[in-house]
Amino acid sequence: MKDFKQIIGAVAFALAALGSTDMQAAEAAMHKNQKSIEMYQECATSCESCATACLNEADVKSLVACVQMNRDCADMCGLCARLMARDSAHAAKACALCAAFCQACADECAKHESAHCKQCAEACQKCADEFKKTNK
Fold first, then answer.
1. How far is CA 70 from CA 1, 90, 105, 130, in A?
2. Which residues make Cβ contacts (< 8 Å) with residue 76, sequence separation at least 6?
3. What residue spans of the chain are helical by DSSP H?
4. Distance between CA 45 and CA 40 in Å, rounded?
5. DSSP 8-state class, residue 56
6. Side-chain half-sphere of 17: how many Cα atoms within 13 Å?
7. May I ask the CATH class of domain 34-134?
8. How far is Cα 51 from Cα 56, in angstroms, rounded to an integer?
9. What is the dihedral of CA 81, 87, 88, 94, to 10 degrees?
10. pLDDT digit string (tens) for 8-56?
11. Can you give the residue ranges of every domain in the chain?
């Protein structure tokens, strides 16, 4: 019985040590990428808000491309934020693609006069520019 308790204790200690290492690695990744993660989250939120506001406009048909681009961009930005938070090896590739989505969304939103489209265009342009700046 004593050996069994020692084995259980050793396993519990090992699991606790592994858990703390994983937690420390996750915290380090979050800290390292926090500015970018927040930028992607803000862009995704701006895109979602813009899409919702576009759907409430009188001439929704003229905003279909904008809504579609907003939704695509929001999904990509959310994905990038999650990949960066977990320090994924695939984050850089996803973020490169996301920069193209952000630029396309910024270009589409800039075509429209509404305040929500202008705000979204700014958030998307910020993401696209930040990626270009940090990945020269």
1. 62, 23, 6, 19
2. 94, 97, 98, 101, 102
3. 2-55, 64-85, 91-110, 115-134
4. 9
5. T
6. 6
7. mainly alpha
8. 9
9. 40
10. 555 445 455 555 556 666 666 556 789 999 999 999 999 999 999 999 9
11. 34-134
Phi, then psi, of 119 in degrees rounded to 5 = -65, -40
Could you tell me if 46 and 77 are in contact, meaning their C-beta atoms sit under 8 angstroms apart? no
Q: For the chain, how far is it from start to end, CA to CA, in angstroms?
A: 62
User: What are 60-106's pLDDT values in tens digits?
Assistant: 999 999 999 999 999 999 999 999 999 999 999 999 999 999 999 99
Q: What does the block give as tokens for 30? A: 């979050």
Nearest to 66 by CA among 13, 30, 128, 119: 119
Q: Which amino acid is at 15?
A: L
Q: Look at residues 119, 132, 131, 110 and name the one whose alpha carbon lies nearest to residue 48.
A: 119
d(CA 111, CA 121): 9
Q: Are 84 and 68 in contact (CB under 8 A)?
A: no
